[in-house]
Design the sequence.
């Protein structure tokens, strides 16, 4: 086994995890919402991209924005239904509702796209870069570039723009923010639309790496959760580095121990994290940063 | 609110009606099969009901307890040759062990962190069940013998759904009784208090972590017992007993009628299974229906279908005597 190759795989995988998690990072940081339908939104994003490229003949560069638009609409619909519960911070209802949405998306996707696996091929995924023993695809490079770009962009928007300030105000205290004249409802809608679009974007970028199935999505939720917890809830920078660490761990564990039990191993890491820093979970929940 | 005396007359009547229902509804194999599944899935949902409705947490690991019941039964009956009592005892022991393990790990976790960890337990369980050869791997475990609960010379066996129905009904009746006793017990009261105001509970001398663990230990064997009977009903077990379907079914059963309604999970399971077995629109559409019902109930009718019926109750009351002032809060408001 070539260790350098595994490190490259881990870095690509890590950027992919961070990219898939970015929407949830903001969602949790700003609205204290969790989305168990996240994995199914990823699945829908992957299938919309696949459908646009393979069936409708749309160029890949246009298919990804299409998937993002669909993701944003799903996010808006979910937030509309959950708005009352969001304002009440009724987490029990919100969690169950997002699970329900995920289930509906699963059934709907299987109905529309069929239950057989598909391969999403792009010109980038067919382009291989070889350097001696080492190799990666153009898609891998695109994932890394897109992830860094999106994280830098999000950090800049949150820290340096008026929209970012409003979002941080809502994250800090929604009730007081409302008194201060912030349209909290609009921020919640915006954050959920971002979550939908971001996870669809991630799917459009990452899904060409693996076969896509309508039954996928569960592992994405766990990986995202580990990224968000490990990075410090709501922390954009933390999520990026947590994603990288998780990617390296997964690649090395898969290569050295067993690929079948990677999820189980990640779960053990998660438990260890929770035992080691249980206080960090709530302390970091103060807002998006 | 039904008063206590009325309950003692009504509940047995409801019980007899339910027991006789499959034969009144035609007595065909399909009807008995649906009835047995309704009873099994309702018992599975009752296990989760006390966690969601009383403790106020969302455990997503209850499919694991259900699956643990299925797998324990399959292993003990096919490899150790145990009868129904032996597999039931094994199921309860395994469920308690798992609940203790998960409960201790998640003892200090609350809200979404608790739910996410229990969700992860479910996903890891799927990986284990489909890869580990001891559990049959992707093929599952086959050849589970018919249920045999014979003792002291009395033969009690069930080879088909019609014969299985009295046992499914008995399991359901025992479960409803246990849930009712739980809600009238000190532990039940402590659970509600821990849910609504953990600080107050601590002031009153209750240890919230201890209460959570105890309720978890009470609830896990209930869902597992449903798995025990399900293994006999299907005669084989595979990783599909961990499918999201069971989780969504349980959650819908808990919230559809309104929380903390004693017969709520049973009525909801009956409604869902009736749709799926007799008015099915295909697997995928059924999924969309079940998921949508769950989402819409919580999004727009958080008090469940019973909450919708409340204005009607007031109407009937109004015919007899002046309408009472509507209560500002009710048990259905607890979330």
Sequence:
């Amino acid at each position: 086994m070539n260790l350098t190759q595994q490190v490259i795989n881990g870095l690509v995988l890590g950027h992919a995890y961070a990219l898939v998690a970015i929407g949830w990072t903001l969602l949790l940081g700003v609205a204290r919402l969790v989305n168990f339908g996240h994995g199914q939104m990823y699945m829908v994003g992957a299938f919309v991209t696949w459908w646009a490229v393979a069936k409708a003949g749309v160029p890949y560069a246009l298919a990804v924005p299409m998937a993002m638009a669909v993701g944003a609409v799903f996010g808006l619909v979910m937030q509309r239904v959950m708005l009352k519960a969001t304002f009440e911070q009724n987490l029990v209802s919100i969690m169950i509702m997002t699970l329900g949405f995920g289930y509906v998306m699963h059934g709907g996707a299987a109905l529309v796209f069929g239950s057989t696996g598909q391969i999403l091929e792009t010109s980038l995924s067919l382009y291989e870069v070889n350097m001696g023993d080492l190799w990666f695809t153009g898609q891998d490079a695109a994932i890394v570039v897109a992830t860094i770009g999106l994280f830098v962009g999000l950090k800049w928007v949150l820290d340096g723009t008026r929209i970012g300030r409003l979002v941080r105000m809502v994250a800090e205290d929604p009730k007081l923010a409302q008194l201060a004249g912030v349209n909290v409802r609009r921020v919640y809608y915006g954050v959920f639309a971002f979550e939908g679009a971001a996870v669809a974007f991630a799917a459009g970028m990452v899904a060409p790496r693996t076969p896509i199935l309508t039954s996928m999505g569960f592992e994405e939720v766990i990986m995202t959760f580990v990224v968000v917890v490990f990075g410090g809830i709501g922390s954009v920078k933390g999520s990026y580095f947590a994603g990288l660490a998780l990617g390296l761990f997964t690649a090395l564990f898969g290569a050295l121990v067993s690929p079948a039990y990677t999820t189980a191993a990640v779960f053990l890491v998660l438990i260890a994290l929770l035992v080691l820093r249980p206080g960090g979970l709530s302390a970091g929940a103060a807002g998006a940063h | 609110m039904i008063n206590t005396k009325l309950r003692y007359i009504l509940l047995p009547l409801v019980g007899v009606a339910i027991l006789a229902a499959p034969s009144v509804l035609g007595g065909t194999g399909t009807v008995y099969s649906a009835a047995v599944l309704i009873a099994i899935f309702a018992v599975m949902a009752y296990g989760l009901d006390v966690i969601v409705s009383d403790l106020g947490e969302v455990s997503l690991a209850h499919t694991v307890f259900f699956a643990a019941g299925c797998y324990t039964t399959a292993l003990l009956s096919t490899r150790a040759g145990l009868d129904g009592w032996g597999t039931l005892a094994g199921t309860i022991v395994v469920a308690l062990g798992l609940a203790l393990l998960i409960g201790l790990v998640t003892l200090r976790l609350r809200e979404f962190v608790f739910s996410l960890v229990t969700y992860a337990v479910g996903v890891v369980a799927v990986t284990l069940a489909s890869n580990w050869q001891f559990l049959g791997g992707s093929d599952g475990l086959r050849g589970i013998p018919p249920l045999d609960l014979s003792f002291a010379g009395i033969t009690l066996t069930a080879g088909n759904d019609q014969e299985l129905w009295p046992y499914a009904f008995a399991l359901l009746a025992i479960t409803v009784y246990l849930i009712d006793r739980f809600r009238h017990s000190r532990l039940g009261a402590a659970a509600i208090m821990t849910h609504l105001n953990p600080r107050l509970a601590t002031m009153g001398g209750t240890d919230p972590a201890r209460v959570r663990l105890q309720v978890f230990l009470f609830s896990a064997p209930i869902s597992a017992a449903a798995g025990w009977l399900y293994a006999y009903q299907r005669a084989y077990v595979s990783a599909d007993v961990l499918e999201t379907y069971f989780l969504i079914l349980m959650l819908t059963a808990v919230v559809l009628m309104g929380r903390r309604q004693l017969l709520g999970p049973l009525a909801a399971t009956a409604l869902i299974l009736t749709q799926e077995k007799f008015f099915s629109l295909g697997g995928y559409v059924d999924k969309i229906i079940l998921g949508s019902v769950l989402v819409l109930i919580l999004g727009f009718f958080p008090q469940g279908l019973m909450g919708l019926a409340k204005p009607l109750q007031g109407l009937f009351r109004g015919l007899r005597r002046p309408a009472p002032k509507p209560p500002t809060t009710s048990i259905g408001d607890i979330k």
Observations:
- Chain A has one domain: 3-286.
- The longest helix of chain A spans residues 3-31.
